[in-house]
Amino acid sequence: MPSEGQQELYYQIALSFVPGIGAKTGRVLLEKLGSAEEIFRLSPKDLKKEGVSEVKTKGFKDPEVLARAQDELDFVIKNNVQTIYTGKGYPTRLAQCSDAPLLLFFKGNANLDAKKIVAIVGTRKNTDYGHKLTEELVEGLQGMEDVLVVSGLALGIDAIAHKKCLQAGVPTVGVMGHGLDRVYPYSHKLLAEQMLENGGILAEYPSLTLPDRNNFPMRNRIVAGMSDVTVVVESHATGGALITAQMASGYNRDVVAYPGRVSDSRSAGCNELIRRNVAGMVTKAADLIEMMNWNKEAKPKAVQRQLFLNLTEDEQKIIDFLQTRDSIHSDELFHQTGLTSSALASTLLMLEMQGLVKALPGKLFRLT
Fold first, then answer.
1. Torsion-angle region of residue 357: left (phi > 0), alpha (psi -120 to 50) or beta?
2. Residue 299 domain flag
């Protein structure tokens, strides 16, 4: 059994092992009861009162669940692995996603709530063109304040991004599709170890979890969810990078892609993302920095009502809301302003034509 100081951590880990209790149910129970330990102290009858089915209540008393939790607790303590639970210390951006994991395992020193977080993804079979673009992108981020690069530690674009970050002194985190007791592919073991010095490795899976192919799409939602923007450097018409981009778009995060030749299969996915307006187009790091309004030289200017005496009431209403945020999704503007969808669309268009508002990928808008 765990020591007195390890009780809550032990039960937090155990909660993630109970069959049928996913992240959403786990969060509901934690919100009601205050701690994982309190959940496990409930009788099956009381668990049923909290909405847990009779079949699922058995898992809370299952010796195998508790034994696995003890083994995992021993592993994280022995290997200096941080367990990041829902609530305090959990990556803020990821916590906003409805399907975020209940528990994360992290090793390293990165700030998972860095001011600027960029996901760089792409094909495992990159071209020299993709290699060059990835390195130039990381070089463009070099020296920026409080920036973090996230990727999946896979072959190809992922590894190029991580390696270049190490060379450039940019913190970088690899999100794994398995437990932190191994590195897949094995050829990236040294790379992962080096990343611990300026970044780290992150997973939702406990030790002994194998790199099953079904885990990697799940891994991609973490890459997308914890980032401000996902950059697709090179991608075939199908693949993990496109899954990450679609997830990021679904989370209302920015997505950008590098265009390529229409005859190049490894740019087909990027070109399609741009064509369907899922991703904005970038050709260099400066484009990304400008789009995200991260240009340190450009200090945002407050928009004063008296400067725009010719604005209509609807236009001024939108300007007022945009002044309160870096960017706002069109759905939120719709609810906040009370305008009809057609009136909102036409008013935003007029503001864009006046150079006051800029449209961003993912139906986001910000003041210019």
1. beta
2. no
Q: Tell me, what's the pLDDT at 317? A: 86
Q: What is the pLDDT of residues 225-265, one digit of tens each?
A: 999 999 999 999 999 999 999 999 999 999 999 999 999 99
Which domain, by its residues, includes 70?
Answer: 4-78
Q: Report pLDDT for 17.
A: 96
Please give the Cα distance from 135 to 162 (Å, whole number): 10
pLDDT tens-place string over residues 22-77:
999 999 999 999 999 999 999 999 999 999 999 999 999 999 999 999 999 999 99
CA distance to 41, 72, 251, 261, per residue, from 66 (Å): 13, 10, 34, 54
Domain tally for the chain? 3
**Rounded to whole angstroms, what are the CA distances from 212 to 30, 158, 187?**
29, 18, 17
Q: 80, 51, 71: which is closest to 10 by C-alpha?
A: 71
**Cα separation, 85 vs 105, whole angstroms:** 9
Measure the CA–CA gap between 277 and 283, rounded to whole angstroms: 16
Tokens of 292: 């995200």
pTM, two decimal places = 0.81
Q: Assess if residue 131 is contained within a domain.
A: yes
Tell me the backbone φ, ψ of residue 226, rounded to 5 degrees: -90, 5
Query: Tell me, what amino acid is at 85?
Result: Y
Give me the pLDDT at residue 308, please. Answer: 52
**3-state SS class at 254:** strand
Statement to judge: residues 284 and 310 lie in one domain: no
Query: Virtual CA dihedral for 180, 185, 187, 190, nearest 10 degrees?
Result: -20
Q: Do 61 and 183 have their domain in common?
A: no
Q: Are 191 and 154 in contact (CB under 8 A)?
A: no
| 215 and 147 in a common domain | yes
Same domain, 353 and 278: no
Residues 155, 275 within the same domain:
yes
